[in-house]
Design brief:
Elements: H1 4-21, H2 24-33, H3 38-44, H4 47-66, H5 68-77, H6 81-93, H7 96-112, H8 117-126, H9 128-136, H10 138-149, H11 160-177, H12 186-195, H13 199-225, H14 232-242, H15 249-264, H16 269-285, H17 295-312, H18 316-324, H19 328-338, H20 344-352, H21 359-371, H22 383-390, H23 401-421
Helix pairs in contact: 1-4, 2-3, 4-5, 4-17, 6-10, 6-15, 6-16, 6-17, 7-8, 7-15, 8-10, 8-13, 9-10, 9-11, 10-11, 10-22, 11-13, 11-23, 12-20, 13-23, 15-16, 17-22, 19-21, 20-21, 21-23
Length: about 425
C-alpha cells in the first residue's frame, strides 16, 4: 500500500485539505453570492467537514490505484480512539448539569474576588479551565471553556480582532495547559510510555513553565478585552434567565461521575462508549434537567479528527526524516512550525519512533509541538471542538485560518519562550 504513487497521492490530498482549511471563509462567501448552490458551499465551508471529506477522497483514490480491499484494510488499520473519545467527552462536558456545576464554582470565585465579575469570569475561562485540562483532558477543558466564554467574548458585537485574540489564547493555553500530567495532552500521551515520562516528570519539567505562560496569556488577553466584556448586571440577568429550574445535586453528581469515568478510561473505547450509552439513557430519564446535547457538533468534530487520522497516517514518509534530522534547537523550531500543518500528536508520535533520540531532543520536540498547538485548527486535537462551539460568534459564522494564525502568534511566542528559556 505504501507505494510511491500512493504516498505522493496522499501527500497531495493532505496539502489540498490544508488549503481547503484556509479557504472556508471563501466558500461561505460563495454561498451568499450563489444562493442556488448555497447548501453545497455551506458544506464545503464547514471546517469540521474538510479533513473527513478529503480522507474519503483518499480512500476512493487508493481503491482505484491499489484495489478496494487494500484501501479498506488501510482505513480499518487506523486507530480511531481519539476521535471517538473527543466526541463522547464533548457531549458529556457540554451537558447542562456539568456546565451548571462549573459556573457555580466560577460565580463563587468571582464573588470573593475584589475585581469586576466579568473580568474574573473571562480570566478563569482563559486560564483556570485550560489548566484544569491536565486533570479532565484537553478536549473536555476546551468544551467547557468555549461554552463559558461564548456569551462573554464571542458575541457578534465584539470586534473580530478581539475575538481572534481570545480564540488564539484559548487554543494555545489549552495546548500547553494539559502538560501538567502525562495523560491529558495528546502529544504528551504519544511519547509518555515510550520515554518513561510520568506526571511528576511532566509537572516539574513542563508543567510549571506552561502554567506561567497560561497565566500571562490569559491576563494580557483579559485586559485587552475588558472594554468589550458585558456588564455584571447583564451577566447576572443572563444567568438568571438560563437558571430556570434548580439542578438536583444527584443529577449533577451522576454527570460529573460519568465524565470522570470516561476520562479515566479514555484509551478504552469499548468502556467509554458503554458509559456514553449509559449517559444518553440517563439524560432521557431525567430530561427536565437537560438542555440540548451537542451531538451534531461533536459528531462533526469526530469526523474531522477521523479524517486527520486517515490522511495523517500516510505522511510519515516525509515527516519522519525531517524530525529525525534536526538538532534539539532546530527541532524545537521545526516542531513549532510543522505543528501548524499537522496534528501535534502525530508529530510527537513520529519522534517516539526515532531510535536513540537524546533527552534534550525529546524535550524540544514536545515543547515545540505543544507551543504551536494554537496556530491552526488542525494543530491540536481539541481545536476543532472550540471552532465548532464558537464559530457562530464570527463573521459568516466561520473561523478564518488567517485570523486564527494572527491571533495565536502572540500567545504562541509567550508559550515558546517559557518552554524554551525557563
Amino acid at each position: 500500500m505504501n507505494t510511491p504513487l500512493v504516498q505522493w497521492m496522499a501527500a497531495t490530498l493532505f496539502a489540498v485539505a490544508l488549503l481547503h482549511t484556509f479557504s472556508v471563509k471563501f466558500f461561505e462567501r460563495l454561498s451568499h453570492r450563489y444562493p442556488r448552490h448555497a447548501g453545497l458551499f455551506h458544506l464545503l465551508g464547514e471546517v469540521e467537514v474538510v479533513f473527513g471529506f478529503w480522507a474519503m477522497v483518499l480512500i476512493v483514490a487508493m481503491a482505484m490505484a491499489a484495489g478496494g480491499s487494500e484501501a479498506l484494510e488501510y482505513a480499518e488499520s487506523r486507530n480511531y480512539t481519539e476521535p471517538l473519545f473527543v466526541f463522547v467527552v464533548m457531549v458529556i462536558a457540554a451537558s447542562r448539569p456539568v456546565l451548571r456545576s462549573v459556573m457555580a464554582v466560577v460565580a463563587t470565585l468571582a464573588r470573593i474576588t475584589p475585581l469586576p465579575t466579568p473580568l474574573v469570569t473571562a480570566w478563569l475561562g482563559l486560564a483556570a479551565v485550560p489548566l484544569l485540562g491536565s486533570l479532565i483532558t484537553e478536549p473536555a477543558a476546551m468544551t467547557i471553556a468555549a461554552l463559558m466564554l461564548a456569551p462573554q467574548i464571542f458575541r457578534t458585537e465584539v470586534p473580530e480582532r478581539a475575538k481572534y485574540l481570545a480564540l488564539g489564547v484559548l487554543f494555545v493555553n489549552v495546548s500547553i495547559g494539559g502538560t501538567l500530567t502525562s495523560y491529558a495532552a495528546p502529544p504528551v500521551l504519544m511519547v509518555a510510555a515510550t520515554w518513561g515520562w510520568d506526571s511528576l516528570f511532566m509537572l516539574t519539567t513542563f508543567g510549571w513553565k506552561a502554567a506561567i505562560a497560561v497565566l500571562i496569556n490569559a491576563t494580557v488577553c483579559t485586559l485587552v478585552l475588558r472594554r468589550h466584556l458585558p456588564s455584571a448586571e447583564a451577566m447576572a440577568a443572563g444567568l438568571k434567565a438560563s437558571d430556570q429550574a434548580k439542578m438536583p445535586v444527584s443529577v449533577a453528581a451522576v454527570h460529573i461521575t460519568l465524565l470522570a469515568l470516561v476520562v479515566l478510561f479514555a484509551h478504552h473505547p469499548v468502556v467509554f462508549m458503554g458509559l456514553f450509552l449509559l449517559f444518553l439513557g440517563y439524560t432521557q430519564a431525567y430530561s427536565t434537567h437537560q438542555s440540548r446535547l451537542i451531538i451534531k457538533e461533536a459528531l462533526l468534530v469526530g469526523f474531522f479528527l477521523a479524517g486527520l487520522v486517515v490522511l495523517g497516517g500516510m505522511q510519515q514518509w516525509w515527516l519522519q526524516p525531517i524530525v529525525s534530522g534536526l538538532e534539539p534547537l532546530a527541532l524545537f523550531a521545526g516542531a513549532l512550525g510543522l505543528t501548524a500543518i499537522t496534528d501535534n500528536a502525530a508529530l510527537t508520535y513520529l519522534g517516539s519512533l526515532i531510535e536513540g533520540i537524546s533527552p534534550a531532543a525529546q524535550y524540544m520536540l514536545v515543547a515545540g509541538a505543544v507551543a504551536g498547538g494554537g496556530l491552526t485548527v488542525i494543530a491540536n486535537a481539541p481545536n476543532p471542538a472550540g471552532v465548532a462551539l464558537l464559530k457562530n460568534g464570527f463573521a459568516d459564522q466561520t473561523v478564518g485560518a488567517g485570523g486564527l494564525l494572527l491571533g495565536a502568534l502572540g500567545p504562541t511566542a509567550v508559550a515558546a519562550l517559557a518552554l524554551a528559556c525557563l
